[in-house]
Design goal:
The complex is a heterodimer of chains A (200) and B (86). Chain A has 200 residues and is mainly alpha-helical. Chain A contains nine helices and no strands. Chain A is elongated, with a radius of gyration of 20 Å. Chain B is an all-alpha fold and 86 residues long. Chain B has one domain. Helices cover 81% and strands 0% of the residues of chain B. Classes of the chains: A mainly alpha (200), B mainly alpha (86).
Chain lengths: 200, 86
C-alpha cells in the first residue's frame, strides 16, 4: 500500500514538473523571440529559429533538471540551433530589418531617427557582443547565466557586454576614451561600480 | 543622418548633464569632498549613455516581446503537453 502511494506521489510530481516545463516555455517565448532577433537580425529567420528551438526543447525536455535555470537552458538551445542553422546555410541577414513597429507611433520624429540609428548600430556589433548585451539588458539575465548559456567564462560575458556598450557609445555619440580604465573587466578582470549589476 | 547624429548628441548631452549632477550629489553624500578623483567625468558620461541605451533597447524591442505568440507555436507546445499528460 505504501509502495503504491509512493508511486502515485512520484507520478503526480513528474506530471507537475512536466506541466511546469510547458508553462515556463510559454512564458519565455516572448524573450526568446527578442533574443532570436539579436542572433539573426531578421524577423522571418528569428521566428523560424524560435519555432525550431522550441521543438528541440520539447524533444529534449527529459534532459532538463527541474529546479535548475530554465532560461539559461533554453537560451543555450536557441543558440545551438542558430549555430547549426548557420552551418547549413550561408548567412542571409538583412541589417535594415529593424522592428519597425517601434517607430510607428508615439515617438517624435527626432526620437524615431535616434532609434533607427541605434538599431543600425546594434546590427553592426559583433554578434557575440550583441547577444550578450541583449541577454543582460532585455532578458535580465545575470552574467553568470549569460556565461552558462553561451558557454564562456563569466569574465568574458562581462567583457562582451562592456565592449558592446562602449562601442555603441563611440559610434553614436563619438565618446571614446583611451585613457587607463582600471575598473574595466576587459583590462583587470574586475567590475567597475556601474558594472556590478547585470542591468545597464 | 546629420539630423539624427545631432539628435543623439543632444540626447547624450542632456543625459550626461543629469548623470554628472547625480554623480556630484552622490559624491557629496558618500565621499570626501576634497577627493576630485572619486567621480571622474567620463564615468558620469558612461552611466548616462548606459541609461539611454537601456531605454532605447526597450523602446526598440519591447514591441517584439509584446506581440502575440504565433498560434502554430502555442499549438506545438500544447500538443506536447497534452500527449505527455496522457
Amino acid at each position: 500500500m505504501d509502495g503504491m502511494t509512493a508511486t502515485q506521489a512520484e507520478r503526480t510530481e513528474a506530471r507537475k514538473a512536466r506541466s511546469e516545463f510547458h508553462d515556463q516555455l510559454v512564458a519565455l517565448v516572448p524573450k526568446l523571440r527578442v533574443q532570436a532577433l539579436a542572433l539573426t537580425r531578421n524577423r522571418a529567420a528569428a521566428e523560424d529559429l524560435v519555432q525550431d528551438a522550441v521543438a528541440n526543447a520539447l524533444a529534449a525536455q527529459d534532459s532538463f533538471t527541474p529546479g535548475t535555470n530554465f532560461a539559461a537552458w533554453m537560451h543555450r538551445i536557441l543558440r545551438n540551433r542558430f549555430i547549426s542553422t548557420l552551418r547549413k546555410q550561408r548567412e542571409t541577414t538583412d541589417i535594415e530589418d529593424l522592428p519597425m513597429s517601434a517607430f510607428a507611433v508615439g515617438a517624435a520624429h527626432e526620437d524615431r531617427m535616434v532609434l533607427k540609428e541605434l538599431g543600425r548600430a546594434l546590427n553592426r556589433l559583433p554578434s557575440d557582443q550583441r547577444e550578450a548585451l541583449f541577454m543582460v539588458v532585455l532578458q535580465g539575465l545575470s552574467y553568470e547565466e549569460v556565461a552558462e548559456a553561451t558557454g564562456c567564462a563569466v569574465g568574458t560575458a562581462k567583457s562582451r557586454v562592456f565592449r558592446a556598450r562602449r562601442q555603441l557609445q563611440a559610434w553614436l555619440i563619438g565618446e571614446e576614451r583611451h585613457g587607463p580604465q582600471p575598473h574595466r573587466p576587459e583590462r583587470s578582470g574586475t567590475m567597475g561600480i556601474g558594472e556590478a549589476h547585470a542591468g545597464v | 543622418m546629420m539630423q539624427s547624429a545631432a539628435a543623439l548628441k543632444r540626447a547624450a548631452v542632456s543625459l550626461s548633464s543629469m548623470a554628472e549632477a547625480m554623480g556630484k550629489t552622490e559624491q557629496k553624500r558618500s565621499a570626501e569632498p576634497s577627493d576630485p578623483l572619486i567621480e571622474p567625468e567620463g564615468e558620469g558620461v558612461d552611466r548616462a549613455f548606459d541609461l539611454w541605451l537601456r531605454r532605447g533597447l526597450h523602446q526598440l524591442y519591447d514591441t517584439v516581446a509584446k506581440e502575440p505568440i504565433p498560434d502554430a507555436l502555442l499549438r506545438l507546445i500544447n500538443e506536447d503537453r497534452a500527449s505527455r499528460e496522457k
